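Q: Here's a chain of 309 amino acids. Please give me its 3D structure as tokens.
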Amino acid sequence: MLQLSNPSRMRTLASQSEAYEYCRQITAKYSKTFYLGTLLMPEEKRRAIWAIYVWCRRTDELVDGPQARLTTPETLDRWEQQLESVFAGHPIDDPDVALVDALERFPLDIQPFRDMIAGQRMDLYRSRYKTFEELQLYCYRVAGTVGLMTSPVLGVDASDVKAPWDYHQPTYNPAEEAIALGIANQLTNILRDVGEDAQRGRIYLPLEELALFDYTEEDLFKGVVDERWCALMRFQIQRARKFFNQAEKGIRSLSSDSRWPVWAALMLYQGILDVIEHNQYDVFSQRAYVPKPQKLLTLPIAWLRAQAL
């Protein structure tokens, strides 16, 4: 999907509408659950979210995509330079056109984007994480940053979080909760993709915790599902749900037109954990996904939560 462009080559870039439509198609194709949540947003917000998603996906594909073997630290250096160009208002590729427009509409900060690139640098030289603290830093960089990127688009409802006599106080910013949601999503991805990651020689479960449950790397590469593995997975799922619970506390602070889609996205991602449990923690021979009928049933429940919580 991603090929770094040569800035010296002059060419005509896509129009804004074409760039946004490309971003919409990519989001719909590669992240059906996330895309469904964006459809509940006002048009200006969902288009900006699509532009951010596509930038994140392109960044991720530098180390996980078909051409990842060609990626070097210098590749990521060039990608960061392209990011700087986009934030300066100078798109290089067609998808950049949409992101530049989003930057004009919403006060996005460049630092979370830089942090995500730093997360990809970790993937260049690490395929194991000894402790959860190490893994949490990785999860922040590759996913917690998404919460920070999208927060300015989602917006905060100041009237809902501040009493009239407290107008002189700064508006509450649910940044920690936004980061928690990104980490929860990434932990869910890790649990869902254990088998796929193993095929690439990667283990994202903390090695200390494998040892805690007397489960070895060799067991994981063989796809062993026994009581040790089930106990380990229960432990991991419990942690992911704690991050989801933390994230829920920040939704009430969002703008009213953002609460429903965020609740929907959160609940749909939580549903993946339910499916893993239903599959008896076998993430080696089957992929955990939420069926479409269940996704649709989630939407009215998410709407009710958006109104009441």
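Q: Can you summarize the key feature?
A: DSSP finds 15 helices and no strands in the chain.
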